[in-house]
Write a structure and sequence with these properties.
Distance between the termini: 23 Å
Structural class: alpha+beta
CATH architecture: 2-Layer Sandwich
CATH class: Alpha Beta
CATH topology: Alpha-Beta Plaits
Number of helices: 3
Number of strands: 5
Order of helices and strands: EHEEHHEE
Strand content: 25-35%
Helix content: 25-40%
Number of domains: 1
Radius of gyration: 15 Å
Length: 106
């Protein structure tokens, strides 16, 4: 999950660039799903959220040359904060609720 603060006069360009990045990510092995969202109460705040099979597939997906070329122009709008999170509990309309222990090394 990566948050972005985008000036109002650049939101259309950002949206197009982020959508292209999401499409490129979706072609990488291990990609499960992704969403681009804009805050309802603060139009300049955006989030790009993706889900992957594993942390390794996420890192390999981001290291792909074509993905990096699309991601670089967006980085200036991104928040400098952690962006990879492990799911430890989930609810999904199509899938039964699940919880589980962390797979992270201690």
């Amino acid at each position: 999950m990566t948050r972005f603060q985008v000036p109002a006069d650049q939101d259309q360009g950002f949206r197009a660039a982020a959508t292209a990045l999401l499409a490129a990510l979706s072609e990488r092995p291990g990609f499960q799903r992704g969403r681009l969202g804009q805050a309802v109460d603060e139009a300049g705040l955006w989030v790009l959220s993706t889900e992957w099979d594993s942390a390794g597939s996420y890192r390999r997906g981001l290291s792909d040359h074509a993905v990096r070329l699309l991601a670089m122009p967006l980085l200036g709008w991104g928040y400098d904060e952690p962006s990879a999170f492990e799911v430890v509990a989930a609810h999904d309309v199509a899938v039964p609720a699940a919880t589980g222990p962390s797979a992270r090394a201690r």
